[in-house]
Amino acid sequence: MTTDKNVAGLLLAAGAGRRMGMPKALVTYRGRLFVESAADVLAGGGCRPVLVVLGAEADRVRKSARLDGFQIVDNPDWNEGMGASVRVGLGTVGALSDVTAAVVLPVDVPGVTSAAVARLVAVAAPDVLARASFDGVPGHPVVIGRNHWTGVIESAVGDVGARDYLRSRARDVLDVPCGDVAVGTDVDRPADLDRLAP
């Protein structure tokens, strides 16, 4: 899919996956690593460029995953939690002057599709906050317009990404229903893979 918008994809794939027993970036589902599939989903939905934030076992991920064409961003503070990945990712995207918004996707939502990402890209703009929802339940991915990047970076601490910022502006967050084209289930443990639609 092509688009005339300059919307970056930001894939958060730095965590150690303690409950999973391994970094989620390296989990295999339907014959592919989570990190590969998720990066392709962002690109397929119209995100350009796609940045992949790595941390835990980053060297192993680089060696194991096919990430040609994607920009790798190292998060040296990955052990702090998702907040550090959001900060380093948006900080890197912020240096790209032609990017107006970022679609943010954690690596552990393998049921998200390019069709869902495309819906988020379609509403993306510098002043927009938006998030996918599944049967009325908010989920991922989320859109963070450029005008909000500084605020999100300032509020992203510990294991909190953009959640607190979005909550503080709940009335401004556009709901983008995606339940008809994707599954919003987070995968935290091996058994969670069984809950995904076949």
Gist of the model:
The chain is α/β, with parallel strands linked by helices and 198 residues long.
Can you give a write-up of this model?
This protein is of the alpha/beta class. Helix content is 27%, strand content 23%. It has helices at residues 34-44, 58-64, 82-94, 114-123, 149-155, 163-168, and strands spanning 7-13, 28-29, 32-33, 50-54, 71-74, 101-106, 129-134, 137-145, 173-177. The strands form two sheets. The chain has a seven-stranded mixed sheet, with helices on both faces. A two-stranded antiparallel sheet has the order 2-3. The chain is globular. The model has no long low-confidence stretch (mean pLDDT 93).
Task: Provide tags for this entry.
27% helix; alpha/beta; 198 residues; 6 helices; single chain; two-stranded antiparallel ribbon; seven-stranded mixed sheet
Task: Characterize the biggest β-sheet.
Answer: 7 strands, mixed
- Principal-axes shape call: globular
Low-confidence segments, given as residue ranges, are: none
Helix amount, in percent? 25-40%
Q: What's the N-to-C terminus distance?
A: 25 Å
Order of helices and strands: EEEHEHEHEHEEHHE
Number of helices: 6
Strand order of the largest sheet: 5-4-1-6-8-7-9
Q: Report the mean per-residue pLDDT as an integer.
A: 93
Computed CA radius of gyration, to the nearest angstrom = 15 Å
Q: Give the total of beta strands.
A: 9
Helical/strand content category: alpha/beta
Q: How large is the share of residues in beta strands?
A: 15-25%
